[in-house]
Write the structure tokens for this entry.
Amino acid sequence: MLSHIQAKLLIVDDLPENLLALEALVKGSDCEVHQAQSADQALSLLLEHEFALAILDVQMPGMNGFELAELMRGMEKTKNIPIVFVSAAGREMNYAFKGYESGAVDFLHKPLDPHAVKSKVAVFIDLFRQRKALKQQLEAIERSREEQAQLLAQLQVTRGELERAVQMRDDFMSIVSHEVRTPLNGLILETQLRKMHLARDNADAFTLDKMRAMVERDERQINSLIRLIEDMLDVSRIRTGKLSIRPSLFDLSQLVGGLIENFAAQAIAAQSSINFSAEAALSGVWDEFRIEQVVANLLTNALRYGAKSPVQVRTFEQQGMACIEVKDQGIGISEQNQQRIFQQFERVASSQSSAGLGLGLYISEQIVLAHGGSIGVHSIEGQGATFTVRLPLTDLPQAADHQQATSA
Ligand SMILES: Nc1ncnc2c1ncn2[C@@H]1O[C@H](COP(=O)(O)OP(=O)(O)OP(=O)(O)O)[C@@H](O)[C@H]1O
Ligand SMILES: [Mg+2]
């Protein structure tokens, strides 16, 4: 059953005729036989091969069998090889041999009894194969144990990721429903109120001034719903690589200036103000709508997390890049959280009370990257935050053109 395991036998005798006779005896014991005519020759074979058994003639000129055996017991590679001494019966038994304790030792006496030789060799070869098979099994068990440990570690990582994904989805769902419910509730309440006025023929509730205010309120609620849906659509566009970039030539400083004017009402609502300084005209080829989206995100954040402090906006040129800087003096962002905020749905715990899906910065960064630019934040917690967008003043990179082509 274990015959697939190769077993080697070493026979050592100074007389070639003895070697021949011994080899003839062990022939057919299903092992590879190596011969040595001296202890030296035997030693070099021992270093080269792994032997199942060594049969040593005790009486040899130079180093005798016992001395060779002692040397073998002293070397790591050979110390456990079973040894069978061949001796002229009754004589060399007086030789001292130290080394019985470490490996198996046996004796054969001259004249050799063929049956005794064969059975001893068979026993040792068999033992060797069993030991070897056991070792292989143990190694296989150890290997599979290591593989299992690796799998387990992988599984734990995957489980962690999964738990985090589920948690993120749950958080996202609750934020989305809250975010959707807020403007919807406003609209429903307004509608019910108007219905009530209509039922009572209360024309006073519908004066032109009141109608104007109503339409404005409705528009705000509807716009925030649209923005919410657009953001979610943008995320799925980014995921499928279909975020479209439609480049055209425009002046960045002019765009930012115009946008800040549109933010006047929001700044007042946030009890803040926005100061703008354009240090240069910055004409370039970018997607005007998308860049406006980025700046609007940064302005909304600065007003939202700016703790009513005035917001400073600057546009300037630096190292061939058009730069927009939005700076507030609000709650700031810790270094640890600065790593997270550009990821989807990532919001800082301290700002959870404010509305937001945690998508603004993620979408902004993706837009800026699609333009071959970058976005970064500099902040110390509690001391405000400065976001800087850098856009290349040269033409759009190939990637953006390609994206535009595929999504057009
Ligand atoms: N100017 C800022 N000051 C302090 N914290 C900020 C600032 N801008 C962003 N953050 C933090 O980064 C988080 C992620 O911002 P992001 O714009 O991506 O999401 P959001 O504002 O929460 O929601 P959304 O933009 O989708 O409405 C915010 O929730 C907030 O914790
Ligand atoms: Mg935001």
Summary: The two ends are 70 Å apart (CA to CA). The chain has three domains: 8-136, 160-239, 248-407. Confidence is low (pLDDT under 50) at residues 398-408. The domain at 8-136 is CATH 3.40.50.2300 (Rossmann fold).
